[in-house]
Specification:
The model has no long low-confidence stretch (mean pLDDT 77). Helices cover 81% and strands 0% of the residues. By secondary structure, it is mainly alpha-helical. This is YtxH domain-containing protein.
């Protein structure tokens, strides 16, 4: 009984961890896409794109803090 429970727990853990990594990758990709779109909108409005190494949201928040 204990071995079976351990095996079921282990299988669930492995499958859950794999699903978690895949979901994390999806979230990161969505954030990067949104950041790129944000930078495109800023460029179209005549504002500089975000600083190198940061995403558009960080740049926007920095501008908002200055004003």
């Amino acid at each position: 009984m204990k071995l079976r429970s351990l095996a079921v727990f282990g299988a669930g853990y492995v499958l859950g961890a794999k699903a978690g990594r895949e979901r994390y990758a999806q979230i990161v990709e969505a954030i990067q896409t949104a950041s790129q779109r944000f930078d495109e909108v800023r460029r179209q409005r005549g504002k500089p794109a975000s600083r190198k190494g940061s995403d558009g949201l960080d740049s926007y928040l920095d501008d908002a803090r200055r004003n």
